[in-house]
């Protein structure tokens, strides 16, 4: 059957509408929670993509307003102001996070402790100042996760020691990327990555191939020590290069051993792969404090968790799960 020119012209618009949308990748970057937030996703429709990205950024702002220790009106600031005097009622979200923090403290034997903040807030990394011996001793006396009195009946928290403070920097960003990925999944997004500084979570794959996430070289800006192929997982890297200053040849960085009040110096970075961002971030801080041997022993005891550790000499250490892929898997990790 043939058509005349007029008939063909009338058919053309209908045929064009019937073609499937090409789709594409959409991304946005913002500075929230004191870090760089990156969202990248695949969508068939640009408007849907931008709405989804905006929903993620809105959630990041919400968490920042709730959990920032620098905002006087945040729930965390209210806890730090009042919990030494009285039990402070908590939101359901804050209660769950502090409950998880105490779980991390128990199984890490105190290597992870959100009450480190009584010492952590004594350091000023921009000014390059550390606490005096006397101030450090006072701050250490206030640290102790066992003295965070969490009451399930009243859903409240009280500090059992004078001068206690808490900081959720150990896994607030991991929690944020978890929430962000959940939002994207609810909106029908199947392929995405959400990053908050050193914490990322990937949703699905990159349309037929894994996401490639690089682990930076702790001592060479722009350098990479490993590239990991990821699908449906979370990754968190903690390093001594994020916020630091050096004094008398000693690097003082933002990762604090709650038992000494000082920065651990046995490692340069720790990267954790885990099913969710909160777990990944919490473990990256924990392993950094424990060191390579004890930290990897802890990782080996957990299902579905792996680690890449860079020690103080720059040597790489891998958990067995990353090595079990054989020579090809090791070569991929060591790109």
Helices, strands, pairings?
Elements: H1 5-18, E1 24-32, E2 35-43, H2 46-67, H3 75-82, E3 88-89, H4 92-107, H5 117-120, H6 133-142, E4 148-151, E5 156-159, H7 172-186, E6 192-196, E7 199-203, E8 211-216, E9 224-230, E10 234-239, E11 244-247, E12 250-253, E13 267-274, H8 277-290, H9 292-300, E14 306-311, E15 316-318, H10 320-323, H11 326-333
Antiparallel strand pairs: 1-2, 2-6, 3-5, 4-5, 6-7, 7-10, 8-9, 10-13, 11-12, 13-14, 14-15
Helix pairs in contact: 2-7, 7-8, 8-9
Give structural notes.
With 335 residues, the protein is an alpha+beta fold. The protein is built from 11 helices and 15 strands. It has helices at 5-18, 46-67, 75-82, 92-107, 117-120, 133-142, 172-186, 277-290, 292-300, 320-323, 326-333; strands at 24-32, 35-43, 88-89, 148-151, 156-159, 192-196, 199-203, 211-216, 224-230, 234-239, 244-247, 250-253, 267-274, 306-311, 316-318. An 8-stranded antiparallel sheet has the order 1-2-6-7-10-13-14-15. Strand 1 (24-32) and strand 2 form a beta hairpin. It is globular and about 65 Å long. The protein starts with a helix and ends with a helix. Mean pLDDT is 90; it is low at 1-20 and 326-335.
């Amino acid at each position: 059957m043939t058509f005349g020119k007029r008939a063909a012209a009338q058919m053309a618009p209908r045929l064009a509408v019937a073609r499937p949308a090409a789709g594409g990748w959409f991304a946005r970057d913002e500075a929230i929670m004191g870090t760089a937030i990156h969202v990248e996703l695949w969508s068939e429709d640009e408007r849907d993509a931008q709405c989804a990205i905006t929903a993620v950024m809105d959630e990041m702002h919400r968490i920042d307003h709730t959990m920032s220790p620098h905002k006087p009106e945040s729930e965390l600031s209210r806890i730090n102001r009042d919990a030494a005097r009285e039990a402070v009622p908590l939101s359901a979200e804050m209660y769950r996070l502090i409950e998880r923090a105490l779980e991390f403290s128990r199984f890490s034997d105190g290597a992870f402790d959100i009450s480190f903040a009584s010492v952590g807030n004594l350091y000023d990394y921009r000014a390059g100042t550390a606490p005096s011996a006397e101030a450090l001793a006072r701050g250490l006396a206030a640290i102790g996760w066992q003295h965070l009195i969490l009451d399930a009946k009243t859903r409240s928290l009280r500090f059992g020691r004078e001068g206690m403070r808490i900081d959720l920097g150990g896994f607030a960003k991991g929690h944020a990327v978890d929430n962000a990925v959940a939002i994207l999944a609810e909106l029908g997004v199947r392929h995405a990555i959400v990053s908050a500084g050193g914490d990322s979570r990937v949703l699905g794959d990159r349309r037929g191939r894994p996401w490639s996430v690089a682990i930076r070289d702790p001592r060479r800006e722009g350098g990479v020590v490993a590239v990991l192929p990821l699908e449906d997982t979370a990754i968190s890297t903690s390093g001594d290069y994020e916020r630091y200053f050096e004094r008398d040849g000693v690097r003082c960085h933002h990762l604090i051993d709650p038992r000494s009040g000082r920065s651990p110096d046995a490692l340069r970075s720790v990267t954790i792969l885990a099913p969710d961002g909160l777990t990944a971030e919490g473990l990256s801080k924990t392993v950094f404090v424990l060191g390579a041997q004890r930290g990897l022993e802890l990782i080996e005891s957990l299902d579905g968790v792996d680690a890449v550790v860079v020690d103080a000499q720059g040597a790489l250490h891998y958990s067995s799960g990353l090595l079990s892929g054989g020579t090809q898997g090791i070569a991929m990790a060591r790109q």
